[in-house]
């Protein structure tokens, strides 16, 4: 078991939850009577941003608009020197390039996204946590 310092760079608290029930019909983990919050990472107030840049606009088949775009990571406005891991959005994690902090240093720690979302028992559209973190490599 690893103990590492992690900062949440998403706009939401991240709840790690145990004992949720997987419902195959909706392919989601659903909160039930024995579901518990194991740990919460509060939102840090700092976001890891990925920007979409439109590189070309054209049409195909006469009138269907098509846009080409490029995704890129923005530098993180924090000093990440003493952080072992960061929780970021899937969009940020999938953007090409290194994670760079406010000082221009390349972050060499762990980059996590949430996995196995847990939804509210009564509202399956409302995400209340996740069962795992995903280590992005």
Question: Any overview of this molecule?
Answer:
The chain has one helix at residues 90-94; strands at 6-8, 14-18, 21-23, 28-30, 36-41, 50-60, 64-73, 85-87, 110-119, 127-136. The longest helix has 5 residues, at 90-94. The model has no long low-confidence stretch (mean pLDDT 94). 4% of the residues lie in helices and 47% in strands. It is mainly beta and 137 residues long. Strands 1, 3, 4, 8, 9 and 10 form a six-stranded mixed sheet that branches. A two-stranded antiparallel ribbon has the order 2-5. It has a two-stranded antiparallel ribbon with strand order 6-7.
Query: What does the largest sheet look like?
Result: 6 strands, mixed
Distance between the termini: 19 Å
Helix content: under 10%
Residue fraction in strands: over 45%
Shape: flat
The averaged pLDDT comes out at: 94
| Strand segment count | 10
Please, how many helices? 1
Question: What labels describe this entry?
Answer:
137 residues, mainly beta, six-stranded mixed β-sheet, two-stranded antiparallel ribbon, flat
How is the secondary structure organized here?
Blueprint (H helix, E strand, L loop, with lengths): L5 E3 L5 E5 L2 E3 L4 E3 L5 E6 L8 E11 L3 E10 L11 E3 L2 H5 L15 E10 L7 E10 L1
Parallel strand pairs: 1-8, 4-9, 8-9
Antiparallel strand pairs: 2-5, 3-4, 6-7, 9-10
């Amino acid at each position: 078991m690893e103990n590492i310092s992690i900062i949440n760079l998403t706009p939401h608290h991240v709840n790690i939850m145990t004992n949720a029930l997987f419902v195959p019909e909706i392919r989601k983990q659903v909160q039930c009577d024995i579901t518990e919050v194991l740990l919460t990472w509060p939102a840090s107030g700092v976001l890891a941003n990925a920007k979409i840049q439109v590189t070309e606009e054209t049409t195909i088949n006469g009138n269907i608009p098509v846009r080409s775009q490029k995704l890129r990571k923005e530098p993180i406005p924090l000093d990440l020197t003493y952080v072992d891991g960061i929780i970021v959005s899937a969009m940020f994690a999938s953007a090409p390039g290194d994670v760079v902090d406010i000082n221009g240093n390349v972050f060499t720690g762990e980059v996590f996204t949430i996995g196995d979302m847990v939804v509210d028992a009564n509202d399956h559209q409302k995400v209340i946590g996740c069962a795992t973190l995903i280590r992005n490599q």
